[in-house]
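Input (structure):
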């Protein structure tokens, strides 16, 4: 965490006054070893093109086995899904699962249900997020903060093709969009302006910053580079 520069303060003031809503966060819990997941992966790729959505592909570990290990699988993604499902499904963990804005659970390949959920989401920009021009810091403006809100950073491969050699998708070529390779907590947000130093995305990489309450509700979201 560091002091906010005058430039970032100006950007925050401008963004906060202009933004009435923020992007909806769509998290797909998926695996390259799950035969039901490719249609959901394709849908996530479609959603990732929209500027009003931050799309994240979180690959879980429990499908990994001797036949195939998903190169995107991360324990942090599995842990995140388990936390969601304690609230959303009574502990039922499955793939492909989409979690929309931290509050709604949908089968990730059900296009109708996914678009119905998105159509009703008009989230306010409670925590406005602005990246520095060089991508080396991110700032969150003042706002009404929930108790215990965290600032999360996700780094992901924008697009990657994998030739699967085993498991349920053996011999298939799969394309993953925004496959999360790192998920970390930058710090807390208590409603006061705050900024954090970050590394800018490298070639072929994107990053997203979320402000999230302990109960899963998301209060801020932004991606770099922006979708669209």
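Output (sequence):
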């Amino acid at each position: 965490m560091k002091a906010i520069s005058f430039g970032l303060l100006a950007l925050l003031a401008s963004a906060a006054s202009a933004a009435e809503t923020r992007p909806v966060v769509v998290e797909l819990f998926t695996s390259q070893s799950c035969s039901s997941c490719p249609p959901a992966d394709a849908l996530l790729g479609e959603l990732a093109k929209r500027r009003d959505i931050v799309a994240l592909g979180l690959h879980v570990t429990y499908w990994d086995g001797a036949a195939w290990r998903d190169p995107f699988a991360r324990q942090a993604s599995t842990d995140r899904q388990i936390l969601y499902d304690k609230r959303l499904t009574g502990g039922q963990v499955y793939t492909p699962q989409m979690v929309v804005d931290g509050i709604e659970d949908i089968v990730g390949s059900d296009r109708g249900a996914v678009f119905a959920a998105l159509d009703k989401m008009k989230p306010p920009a409670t925590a406005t997020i602005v990246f520095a021009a060089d991508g080396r810091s991110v700032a969150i403006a003042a706002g009404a903060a929930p108790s215990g809100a965290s600032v999360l950073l996700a780094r992901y491969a924008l697009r990657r093709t994998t030739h699967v050699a085993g498991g349920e998708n053996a011999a298939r070529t799969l394309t993953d969009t925004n496959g999360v390779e790192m998920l970390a907590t930058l710090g807390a947000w208590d409603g006061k302006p705050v900024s954090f130093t970050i590394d800018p995305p490298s070639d072929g990489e994107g990053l997203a910053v979320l402000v999230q309450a302990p109960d899963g509700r998301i209060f801020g979201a932004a991606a770099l580079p922006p979708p669209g």
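Notes: The first helix runs from residue 6 to 18. The CA atoms of residues 144 and 204 lie 35 Å apart.
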